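Re: [ENG-882] Designed sequences occasionally contain unexpected residues at chain ends

Forwarding the minimal case from QA. Structure tokens:
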């Protein structure tokens, strides 16, 4: 996992999530929740086609990789538009653009599903103050500030939205809000030929355990595939430490390592970690 940056321009953000449509869909969610609380409806009826349209942009932002495991996803799988906070619990974020990222189906469906562990469950978000008797005026006001507008930052401010994320303190990291390199370290085992995700510091262990359980980031297939890329990187690095190589070979080897650390490369977060460690940075 590496840090990602969300692009917030009219050219890249689908109009489904800005302006009047954002507010209209928020009203729809709020009115349905009011019906649920009053007993007039059994549950929400989320419309998948509304968020499917953002998949290509999310893939562009994650460089065609799963935002969680960093495996190259688009080549072998259509991938999923993932709700970071599950819509089954955080219903008011079902159509929130800042709650989306792209993931492989293994990380999303096989492992994460509707799970969303917190460091302290007592700090879980409770959502908007909608009741069975909320007035149209109440709902109209709530709809405007239910989430951020990704274009003009109307509604809930993006700063407040991100601060709310950190205040709730999910054990699952969001690469748009968190810096994974602060938490994630790696350990190579040359005997079993695997690379395992470990915490950078002992007090980050709960976040690593959550990533293992809910993202599957230490599943066997990933550990073995990561070792393949680690082995290539390590060969390049050992080559650089050979005084007998030519200047041209040294230059090309440095370039190869930089390519493996690039945001578009598989498991770039892991390669960056080992490269910093090897160079004593």
């Amino acid at each position: 996992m590496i840090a990602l940056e969300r692009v917030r321009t009219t050219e890249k953000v689908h109009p489904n999530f800005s302006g009047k449509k954002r507010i209209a869909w928020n009203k729809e969610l709020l009115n349905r929740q009011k019906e649920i609380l009053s007993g007039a409806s059994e549950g929400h009826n989320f419309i998948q086609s509304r968020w499917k349209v953002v998949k290509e942009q999310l893939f562009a932002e994650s460089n065609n990789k799963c935002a969680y495991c960093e495996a190259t996803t688009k080549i072998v799988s259509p991938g999923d538009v993932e709700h970071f906070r599950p819509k089954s619990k955080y219903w008011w974020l079902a159509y929130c653009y800042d709650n989306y990222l792209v993931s492989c189906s293994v990380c999303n469906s096989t492992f994460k599903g509707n799970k969303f562990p917190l460091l302290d469950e007592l700090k879980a978000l409770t959502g908007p103050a909608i009741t069975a008797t909320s007035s149209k005026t109440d709902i109209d006001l709530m709809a405007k500030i239910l989430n951020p507008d990704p274009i003009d930052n109307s509604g809930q401010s993006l700063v407040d939205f991100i601060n709310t994320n950190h205040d709730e303190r999910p054990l699952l990291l969001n690469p748009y809000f968190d810096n994974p390199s602060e938490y994630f370290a790696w350990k190579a085992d040359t005997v079993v030929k695997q690379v395992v995700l470990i915490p950078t510091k002992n007090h980050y262990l709960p976040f690593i355990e959550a990533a293992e359980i809910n993202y599957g980031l230490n599943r066997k297939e990933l550990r073995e595939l990561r070792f393949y890329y680690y082995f290539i990187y390590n060969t390049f690095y050992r080559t650089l430490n050979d005084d007998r190589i030519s200047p041209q070979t040294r230059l090309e080897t440095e370039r190869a390592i930089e390519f493996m650390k690039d945001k578009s490369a598989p498991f770039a977060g892991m390669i960056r970690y080992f490269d910093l460690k090897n160079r004593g940075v």
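QA comment: On inspection the terminal residues look reasonable. The CA atoms of residues 61 and 265 lie 13 Å apart. Proposing we downgrade this to a documentation issue.
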